[in-house]
Amino acid sequence: MNAEYYFIDTFRSPRSPIGDDGALIGKQVYSKDLFFENVHFRRRWLTPYQIGYKAMIVNISDAIAMNAVPRYALLGVAMPKSMSLHAMDELSAGLRDAARTYDVDIIGGDTIGNVKLDLSVTIVSEAAGKPLMRTGLKTGDLIAHTGRLGDSAKHLRYLMAGGKVHRASRFVAPKLRWNFVREASRHLRCGMDISDGLFSDLGKLSKANAKGIAFSRKIGKRTGCSGEEYEMLVAFSPRKAETIRRIAARTRTPITIIGRAKRGVFVNRCKAHHF
Are 22 and 62 in contact (CB under 8 A)? Predict the structure, then answer.
């Protein structure tokens, strides 16, 4: 049993909007992710600027994944008392630069002293046209992902072995697929970002729609279990395949069809990342 999913399920109710990358309330989308030292990163791997930048970007990803426009951010920052003022400035600059890239205003939050560096970001967004939800998958729909998967886990292995990765590494600075989502959303049946790994997020899509997956290509465990990709996992009718390919080409978004939705259930065999 996945303890994380079990705990989340204790909050579900008929009135609860829990289950997507963000909670859709009217036209607003609310989302929150944590970015904790020794869980998501180690300070010897990333500069304070990179930590702040990634903490904000991975939260904005939830808004992008739902075809929402991120507007405001609230921060929760717990930091060691030993952090220098220079490190604080760098952390702040990373958060602000990532927010500025997507025209997000940081409007408040809370700070506290701690034994390590932990960040929590809440993003308030506005639904832009048709919100992209995780539900809506139909039998026979094509399932695809954007980009190339597996590099994030590969670079994490380098870091854990004491090596270094380039500052443009997906593990350090994820690239979001906003242009693709904005253009493709009305043609998509459903979608979500790949934050916990392809197989893990396929499991969520399968559970949300009570569908299985018939794979059309072999996907290795290292690729399927690689987390923190922040690419998009999407599904669409076969009749929309050429339209999706044209949009992907126009927005310079690599896209790979990996299978079709079928009756049944997909079971994720990857080890849980956070519990």
Answer: yes
